[in-house]
Amino acid sequence: MLKLLRKKMKLILWITTILVVPTFVVWGTMVRFGEKRGPAYAGIIFGRKVSFDEYSQTFREVDQQNRRMYGDNYSQFAKFLNLEEQTWDRLVLLYEARKRNIIVTDREVSEEIAKFPAFQKDGRFDQETYRKILANGARAFEEELRRSLIISRLSEEAMKDVTVSDEELKDEYKKENEKAKISYVLFNPEKFKGEIKVEEAELDSYYKTHEQALKKPEEVNVEFIPIEFAGAENEVVIVEDDVRKYYDSHLDEFAVSDTPVAAPAPEKKEKAFKPLDEVKEDIKKRLTTLRARKLAKDKAEKIYYALLEDRKFEDVPKEYNLTIGETGFFSQDKPSIPVIGFSYEILKSAFELKPGDFSEPHQSSNGYYIIRLKEKKESYIPKFEDVREEIEKNVLQDKAKDLARSKTEETLVKVKDTLREDGKGFEDAAKELQLDVHVSEPFTRRGYIPGIGMSAEIAGAAFSLKVGEISNVFEIPQGYLFFKLNELLPMDEDLFKKEMDTFKTRALNQKKSNNYREWLTNLRAQAKLKSNIGSPR
């Protein structure tokens, strides 16, 4: 019951967001263009003007799709999502669907809605439940779903002729399952640093040519009031009556797992539940956590409202036995905030505040924090003396890498000469040159190479060589290397026959996915988007 309730609450949350939140999300964008001198439409696709209302509605739908996809982690991923681009893509796809006369009937929308577990009762769609959850938002929800179904049908139609031939299937299986083994020699730049001397002129030249790379980002130092869950837990008192009430009202959570949930009427059995004594401690922990979070939230709101009444930031926390903390200076290039830890919302807020201003309470994994900006350092190019050590380290690293590459290339020539002139094997030639030879475990074209890591370049080169041939020089994070192909392990033909049907479905889906991306890219080009919302792509 609780799981179903949670699903319903999540549905209510994102449906509410569909109807309300985007008004604020998109408003900031719209205001910029709402002035008399601004354009009267959001953009142009396929030569057709798109109104701000149409763009806003589509933006809302895209935002909701992302919220459903990322769930509670949405705020953490939001800064990496290009919602404007996704909005224009959705508009482009809907335009193409109209062009192809793709429609979704009311009946089809109703059938899809009936599949939602949150709208069901006793395994069937329940109109009353649907009405209660959506209220006046039903129409908006249905139209958003209709448009999503239209795009889904368009995608299916665009990819309906994509097939995988037997030859393609075997080739793809071969790419995934054929393996190679190599012997390689690695030159790590760290080993050459002792041979390098860095001149003062080199440091000066590096400073002059890398000013932007050495530029220090904007930094802030914030004070914060911590209203943490751990502290609130100490204030929670759970009595036996609380445990009993929770147990009685959440009985389904404690059902014995092998008890039938819904058996046919003639065979219906009584549900069995874990006894209260067995789950008492677990209930206490749950109640403590829930109440501590509620206490922390209530306390954070009281402190925030007190601050809004112009009470001193330093005084209010004392009333709750809280101590103001300070992070020290930090920038946006690292996701974790000193002392506080990771929180995208707090990080964002810290760089939006003006010195002396405080934020509303922001929740993190540890509790709620109200922050006040104490100091801000603007981005600047540091003096040479202040970054001399950093420059010396960079120059040394660059010279070590150059020397390592040079040594690798020279050694490769010597190994090939030894093989050609003396007829020795790769390992013998390497041993003569006092080189350490590493032998890899078998790897595929698309897989991880033990000892080297992910390298499509090296994997591709390995499968292009003949057994016994030696590669060119490759750069990897650990340094530079060259290798000899030891062995090519063919795919298992019998296993391929057994897995062919299952693999064909996966290979077809992958091909459709690749083709769809290419098709969408071409459709974007045909749309010739001209956007008045931010910057066009």
Map the helices and strands.
Elements: H1 2-19, H2 22-33, E1 43-45, E2 48-50, H3 52-70, H4 74-77, H5 83-99, H6 106-113, E3 120-121, E4 124-125, H7 127-134, H8 138-158, H9 166-177, E5 179-187, H10 200-209, H11 211-214, E6 219-228, H12 229-233, H13 240-249, H14 276-308, E7 325-330, E8 336-337, E9 341-342, H15 344-352, E10 362-363, E11 367-377, H16 384-422, H17 426-432, E12 438-439, E13 448-449, E14 453-454, H18 456-464, E15 474-476, E16 479-489, H19 493-527, E17 530-531
Antiparallel strand pairs: 1-2, 1-17, 3-4, 5-12, 5-16, 6-7, 6-11, 8-9, 10-11, 13-14, 15-16
Helix pairs in contact: 1-3, 2-3, 3-5, 5-8, 5-19, 6-8, 9-19, 10-16, 13-14
Strand count = 17
**Helix content, binned percent:** 40-55%
Q: Give the overall form.
A: extended
Which residue ranges are poorly predicted, with pLDDT under 50 across at least 5 consecutive positions?
1-37, 258-268
Describe the protein's architecture and organization.
This protein is of the alpha+beta class. Helices cover 52% and strands 14% of the residues. It is built from 19 helices and 17 strands. The strands form six sheets. The chain has a four-stranded antiparallel sheet. α3 (52-70) packs across α5 (83-99), α5 crosses α19 and α10 (200-209) packs across α16. The protein starts with a helix and ends in a 6-residue tail after the last strand.
Question: Can you give keywords for this protein?
Answer:
four-stranded antiparallel β-sheet, 17 strands, alpha+beta, disordered N terminus, 537 residues, 19 helices
